[in-house]
Specification:
4-stranded mixed sheet; Nucleoside Triphosphate Pyrophosphohydrolase; 2 domains; alpha+beta
Length: about 200
């Protein structure tokens, strides 16, 4: 019976504190339930410690990127975007999928230009995290983008986007009033606020 290496087949770097779950859990069977243009739904049967078996449904998505674009006037660039599963427009940091053959840095530069029209002179990684490890393999790499140069947007044909620039004070107010409802955006903005606080800004 094959060992269950990282369920996302190579994206996860470590499984927890002090031990590797792949040494304790075995993969008995794996089936593709649905394969679409954006994601794949799989069903795995795994063997847990003590020989107990369990089914795990999960979405295979791959890698993605998050941008924290900070303009020259120290305002952060967000996008108002229609999200059909939420049934509403959400205020989000720019983000998107890493295409085949792209590095996270290349995807970050492309997504920033497509969604906001800005080009960044500098992209610096500040984190990497799973968005929903209970049911998805999506691993997101986060970048702060500075030295922004405005340009033309080139969004996907089905994307409805508009730029929104906020000061740090407006971001803090929005965080306190639950204005932001997208988890990755909240994480990125909290990092920005905390980084400024630690730097005495």
């Amino acid at each position: 019976m094959p060992r269950l290496q990282n369920i996302d087949r190579g994206l996860r770097k470590n499984a927890g504190a002090g031990y590797n779950l792949s040494n304790m859990i075995e993969l008995k069977d794996s089936k593709t339930i649905f394969a679409g243009g954006l994601l794949t739904l799989k069903l795995d049967r795994i063997v847990l410690p003590g020989a107990r078996e369990a089914d795990r449904e999960y979405v295979v998505f791959g890698r993605s990127v998050l941008l924290l674009p900070v303009a020259r006037d120290d305002r952060v660039v967000l996008v108002s975007q229609y999200r059909h599963p939420a049934g509403d427009y959400l205020l989000e940091l720019p983000a998107g999928k890493v295409d085949e053959g792209e590095s996270p840095e290349e995807a970050a530069a492309r997504e920033l230009a497509e969604e906001t029209g800005y080009r960044a002179e500098r992209l610096v990684r500040f984190g990497e995290f799973f968005l929903a490890p209970g049911y998805s393999t999506e691993l997101m790499t986060a970048f702060v983008a500075t030295g922004l140069v405005p340009g033309e947007k080139n969004p996907d044909p089905d994307e409805i986007l508009s730029n929104v620039l906020l000061t740090k004070e407006e971001v803090i107010s929005g965080l306190m009033s639950a204005r932001f409802r997208d988890a990755k955006t909240i994480l990125g903005l909290l990092w920005w606020v905390a980084e400024g606080f630690l730097a005495g800004k």
